[in-house]
């Protein structure tokens, strides 16, 4: 992983994957790099799938079909992927061309999977437009859609050819989208990103991308170290599914991060102060730190059995937990212990901490 900075290309972090290596550019205005990226690929035409108005997008420099993205978890389905692939085919897209995603994390996931499957793989470039997508979803090559049985159960690894994190897109985000992204930043605190509270937002994004780039370069396909990026996600994904996605991804990860601290304490892996730190970090970002009212603990345990790390253990559940050696995959956690800790996190009413109306000027998290 290399890291450079320049006025034209913003902060550049390279994801070092040999012939599949690619740059991530972070900063205001980096969307303008898109025509050059496409020219370097040699693509003759492009399909842009965008959740943003066309006027906010740069030209591609080649003949382009623009499609409206169906952003949101409700549209992260196999059927939507199939409809995108049909649009690609009707336009005459070939393996020598390029697909561009422009939207939040669900858009990068869905469009990325469509690009991975169409003609067994066509180049994709991501222009993430939300904090969640810039911090995490657009980098690393994981693409997936949901099934009724759980989140992200159908997917593929397909690395983008470039990622352009234009922080100018963040200026128009509503408070709930900032909170969604802050959930991923909160969990970064416990997996090696260091103290991010109080930093300008572009530095927070860059720190998260540097961490993810290093992890992905070492373990592209989730055989070991990359599981650390799922800190807080096992419960988070279960909460999303259990609530029909009324709990958003970042909120679920935030609650899952608090749970990870409490579970590590219950297993004797960390002390009480470290467990409290999990809740303090989550609260700093204005995120929920308890289970939403009415969620069934037994149902959550059932959903967590389907987590992709579950195969690592024949008995009990598997989580990424903090400990004396730092975060690591911990298999064989007794279900009764999990249920007991979850029981301590129940809330009679929804619990939230204040999220500023304009997060770009609060808590040091300033937009560019």
UniProtKB/TrEMBL annotation:
<keyword id="KW-0456">Lyase</keyword>
<dbReference type="GO" id="GO:0003856">
    <property type="term" value="F:3-dehydroquinate synthase activity"/>
</dbReference>
<feature type="domain" description="3-dehydroquinate synthase C-terminal">
    <location>
        <begin position="201"/>
        <end position="310"/>
    </location>
</feature>
<dbReference type="InterPro" id="IPR050071">
    <property type="entry name" value="Dehydroquinate_synthase"/>
</dbReference>
<protein>
    <submittedName>
        <fullName>3-dehydroquinate synthase family protein</fullName>
        <ecNumber>4.2.3.4</ecNumber>
    </submittedName>
</protein>
<keyword id="KW-0028">Amino-acid biosynthesis</keyword>
<keyword id="KW-0520">NAD</keyword>
<feature type="domain" description="3-dehydroquinate synthase N-terminal">
    <location>
        <begin position="68"/>
        <end position="179"/>
    </location>
</feature>
<dbReference type="Pfam" id="PF01761">
    <property type="entry name" value="DHQ_synthase"/>
</dbReference>
<dbReference type="InterPro" id="IPR056179">
    <property type="entry name" value="DHQS_C"/>
</dbReference>
<dbReference type="InterPro" id="IPR030960">
    <property type="entry name" value="DHQS/DOIS_N"/>
</dbReference>
<keyword id="KW-0057">Aromatic amino acid biosynthesis</keyword>
<dbReference type="Pfam" id="PF24621">
    <property type="entry name" value="DHQS_C"/>
</dbReference>
């Amino acid at each position: 992983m290399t890291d450079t900075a320049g006025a034209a290309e913003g902060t550049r972090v390279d994801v070092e994957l040999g012939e599949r290596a690619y740059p991530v550019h972070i900063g205001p205005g980096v969307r303008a790099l898109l025509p050059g990226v496409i020219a370097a690929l040699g693509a003759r035409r492009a399909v842009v799938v965008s959740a943003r108005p066309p006027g906010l997008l740069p030209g591609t420099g080649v003949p382009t079909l623009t499609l409206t993205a169906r952003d949101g978890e409700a549209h992260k389905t196999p059927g939507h992927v199939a409809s995108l692939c049909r649009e690609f085919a009707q336009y005459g897209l070939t393996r020598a061309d390029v697909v561009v995603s422009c939207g939040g994390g669900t858009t990068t996931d869905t469009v990325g999977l469509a690009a991975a499957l169409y003609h067994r793989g066509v180049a994709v470039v991501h222009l993430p437009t939300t904090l969640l997508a810039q911090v995490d979803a657009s980098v690393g090559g994981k693409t997936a859609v949901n099934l009724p049985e759980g989140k992200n159960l159908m997917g593929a690894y397909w690395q983008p050819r470039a990622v352009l994190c234009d922080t100018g897109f963040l200026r128009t985000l509503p408070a709930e989208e900032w909170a969604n992204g802050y959930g991923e930043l909160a969990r970064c605190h416990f997996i090696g990103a260091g103290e991010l509270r109080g930093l300008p937002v572009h530095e927070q994004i860059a720190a998260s991308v540097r961490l993810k780039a290093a992890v992905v370069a070492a373990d592209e396909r989730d055989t070991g170290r990359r599981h650390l990026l799922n800190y807080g996600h096992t419960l988070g994904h279960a909460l999303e599914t259990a609530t029909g996605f009324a709990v958003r991804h970042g909120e679920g990860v935030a609650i899952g991060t608090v749970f990870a601290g409490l579970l590590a304490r219950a297993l004797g892996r960390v002390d009480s102060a470290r467990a409290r730190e999990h809740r303090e970090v989550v609260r700093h970002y204005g995120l929920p730190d308890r289970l939403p009212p009415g969620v069934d603990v037994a149902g959550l345990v059932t959903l967590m059995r389907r987590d992709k790390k579950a195969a690592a253990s024949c008995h009990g559940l598997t989580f990424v937990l903090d400990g004396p050696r730092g975060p690591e995959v911990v298999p064989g956690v007794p279900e009764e212990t999990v249920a007991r800790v979850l029981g301590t996190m129940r809330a009679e009413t929804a619990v939230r901490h204040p999220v500023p109306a304009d997060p770009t000027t609060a808590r040091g998290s300033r937009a560019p």
